[in-house]
Amino acid sequence: MSDAPVAILTGAGRGMGAACARELAARGWSVALLSRSGSAADLAASIGGIGMKGSVTSEEDLRALVDAVLKKHGRIDAVVNSTGDPVSGELLEIADGDWHGGLDLVFLNVVRMARLVTPAMLRREDGAIVNISTCFAREPSLRFPVSSALRAALGAFARMYAERYAASGIRMNNILPGFVDSYEVDPDTVRTIPMGRPGSVGEIARAAAFLVSPEARYITGQSLRIDGGLTRSI
C-alpha cells in the first residue's frame, strides 16, 4: 500500500467522469473506476488504476468496487459520482417507471455510495465526495424534467450529508455543469451561453480535483455552478 490518496470514480468510461479520472491520476492519485461499458476498465489500465464494469444502480456492483479498493489500498480519500442523464420528454407524459429509473440513476446512486464509503472515511476522519449534477438543478428546465427535479433533491441530500459529517472531516459538494463538450451542443443553445461556448470536460475535472483536495477542506454542502454564466439566479 502506498501513501497516495485514493479516489473512486463512477461513470468514468467517458465524458466528465473519464476526464476527472485522468486529472486525478495526473495529480498523483490512485484511482478506481466504474462504468457500464468496458471503457472504465480500459482507461484504468492505461493510467494504472482499478477498473470494473458495473452500474451505479446496483448496490452489489458498487460494493464490489469499494471492497476492491479497500483490499488493495486500505483507504478511500475521495469519490466522484458521475452518471449519464435520465430520460427526457413532455412533462406529464413521462411514465412512472422513467421517474423511478431517474431516481435510481441520479439520486440513489449517491446515497448508496455514501453508505458504502463513509465508514472508511470515518476511520480516518477525512474524505470528500463530489457529485456531478447539472445547473438545471437550480433553474429547472422543461428540456430535462427528470434530471432537473431529481438533481434538485440531490442538492438537499448533499446539504444534509454535509451537516451530519462535517465535524468528522468528511465533505460533500455538488458540481453543476451547464452544456459541455462531451456531446454536441447545437448553435442555438450555444447562443444562450454568455461565454459563447460549451464548457470543456477538462474544466469540470479541474473543479472536481480542487473540491477533493486539501485546499477545499473548508468547503462542504455547496453546489458550484460551472455553466459559463448560463443560469442567472442569485
What structural category characterises the helix and strand content?
A: alpha/beta
Percent of residues in helices comes to 40-55%
Order of strands, main sheet, comes to 3-2-1-4-5-6-7
Give the tally of β-strands: 7
* Alpha-carbon Rg, integer: 17 Å
The main sheet comes to: 7 strands, parallel
Strand content: 15-25%
Instruction: List SSEs in N-to-C order.
Output: EHEHEHEHHEHEHHE
What does this structure look like?
The chain is α/β, with parallel strands linked by helices and 234 residues long. The chain contains eight helices and seven strands, in the order βαβαβαβααβαβααβ. It has helices spanning 15-26, 39-47, 59-73, 96-106, 108-124, 145-165, 187-190, 201-211, and strands at 6-10, 30-35, 50-53, 78-81, 127-132, 170-177, 223-226. The protein has a seven-stranded parallel beta sheet with strand order 3-2-1-4-5-6-7, sandwiched between helices. Strand 2, helix 2 and strand 3 form a beta-alpha-beta unit. Helix 1 packs across helix 8. The protein is globular. The chain starts with 5 loop residues before the first strand and ends in an 8-residue tail after the last strand. The mean pLDDT is 97.
